[in-house]
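Researcher: Re-running this chain for the archive, since the previous output was lost when a drive failed. Same request as before.
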Amino acid sequence: MIEAAELSGLAGIRHGFMTRDGGVSTGLYATLNCGIGSKDASEAVLENRARAVAAIGMPAGSLVTAYQVHSAKAVVAETVWPREAAPQVDGIVTAKPGITLGILTADCAPVLFADERAKVIGAAHAGWKGAISGILQQTVAKMVELGARPARIRAAIGPCIGQLSYEVGAEFPAPFLAQDPAQARYFIPSIRDQRYMFDLGGYVRDQLRALGLVAVELVGRDTCSEEDQFFSYRRATLRQEPDYGRQISLIGMLG
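Model: Regenerated structure tokens:
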């Protein structure tokens, strides 16, 4: 488990970016696969999720996750909803103690948020599609609705695909440059012609800073290159593997 300095030590708030270690799954999913959407045995995934929640010191049965769809939609969690009723969103926030928010990733950027004074927390799944369309802005907006203030919100961007692992096609930068030509800074040339390497973590970090968040931490771990520590969709695709696991990132408030 990886903890972020910006979120550590906050009163009553627990968090952790899980690695792939410490679970019961085997094979492609070894060992802490928390992805219900994978083809792993469901009983193994549920056990792994329970272990992850326990690892951050939150109570059993407190986990809420979303049916992630690379959207810009965020919701408020008032209670722990059934897993099969998870909303199709990519951001969840809450001001209720006893709820653990969970985000599943396998290269996309998991982002955890906390306003210690307002007692409001959030979690977002920021792939490039969600990030460019506004998932970070919507998650922060939902936190503000519950009493948080951007200048007080601390945020941590967990392990995600690193720039040196994230090759994209010639057309990929266009929507970013249309948004702001200065966003060319997130792209460097690939060794292959007409291709670029994209800095997802840096893009997410700067989007958060533009929202007025002062305390933003980028963990800076590469899910694609660090095979012993993380699951990776890109790595699995390049190897033509039939499936891949997902790591979970968690934040919760004690009652």
